[in-house]
Write a structure and sequence with these properties.
The chain is an alpha+beta fold and 312 residues long. The chain has two domains: 144 residues, no CATH class; 153 residues, Phosphoenolpyruvate Carboxykinase, domain 3. 21% of the residues lie in helices and 32% in strands. The protein is elongated.
């Protein structure tokens, strides 16, 4: 297991966490998770999260992992039901996420988190997980759900897109629905130019706190078909909304148009209107700061050349 151990004093700062537990830090898109783990010999890190492991220098979300004999299904109406692997309920002090396929009956793990998504308890069912040699409590989709909800408390958002960073260190973001050409765009750019790819499917955008570009994009562990996932970040110069078409045509969008196009390709929790308002406000800031284009393109080298020649 690849892990980073914090001091006993540091672990004690977590509510209800006894000194001596193992502590792991994961940083995704400017959000750092601190995971205090029980039964550490049974816990492993997903390979997808290994590049995002970091040293313990503060955290945004503190998570206590505890083992329970089993978990009973939650009674009552869910705030949201994914229809497959997770359901969301209102709890006394915040929210409760239950994870597990319906066919398996009882939940396999349960996340209880406060309204600000800063402190959480993750209960793991020994009845289910004892059949495995090792498990990662942050395994998808729990990791992404935590990050997406935490971003609602900050000036940041996750977008369905691929992030391409050119040799000069400046980034272009290509957003699109599934099948719009994100993985294809990634392959085209890596074949034509020496670029870094932050992700070929999901990118986090937030205010740039280190430079003068206004916005910065971050890679995530949640890759697409091309399987690019980087923990790096880059200043964001332009955003392109991908569409398949004949020829390669760029159309600069007005900020109002850009907000609508970006919102349609954003990962936003829909169960609270405050989250929607926060997302729209931030996307307006993005559209006012970064040029956004609609890009109708053909999947060949000329699609890359068109962007290389672009001057705003």
């Amino acid at each position: 297991m690849k892990a980073i151990v914090g001091s006993a004093e540091e672990l004690a700062t977590l509510a209800g966490v006894e000194p001596g537990l193992q502590c792991r830090y994961v940083s995704i898109g400017g959000v750092t998770l601190k995971v205090a783990e029980e039964r550490s010999e049974r816990l492993a890190s997903c390979p997808e999260l290994d590049p995002f492991l970091t040293s313990g220098e503060g955290c945004d979300i503190a998570i206590r992992v505890e083992w329970v004999s089993g978990l009973s299904p939650m009674q009552g109406c869910a705030l949201f039901d994914s229809g497959t692997t997770w359901r969301l309920y209102r709890s006394e002090d915040g929210f409760q996420f239950d994870f597990g396929a319906r066919s398996l009956g009882d939940p396999q793990k349960r996340l209880i988190v406060d309204e600000d998504f800063r402190r959480a308890t993750l209960q793991m069912s020994a009845r289910f997980y004892d059949q495995f040699d090792a498990v990662d409590p942050l395994a998808y989709p729990l990791d992404e759900l935590l990050i997406v909800h935490r971003l609602t408390q900050e000036k940041a958002i996750e977008l369905h897109g691929c992030g391409i960073v050119r040799a000069d260190g400046i980034g272009n973001l290509f957003v699109g629905h599934s099948g719009a050409g994100k993985s294809t765009t990634t392959r085209l750019w890596t074949a034509v130019e020496d670029v870094a790819v932050l992700s070929d499917d999901r990118i986090i955008v937030r205010r740039d706190e280190v430079g003068h570009w206004g916005m910065r994009m971050f890679g995530t562990p949640w890759h697409g078909e091309a399987r690019y996932a980087s923990a790096a970040s880059a200043p964001l110069a332009r955003i392109f909304v991908l569409e398949h078409g004949l020829g390669n045509r760029l159309t600069r969008l007005m900020p109002g148009q850009a907000v609508g196009e970006l919102f349609a390709r954003a990962f936003v929790p829909f169960h609270r209107h405050e989250y929607l308002g926060s997302a729209l406000d931030f996307l307006q800031e993005v559209a006012d700061t970064i040029p956004v284009y609609r890009y109708s393109f053909e999947p060949n080298e000329s699609a890359v050349r068109q962007i290389q020649r672009l001057r705003d």
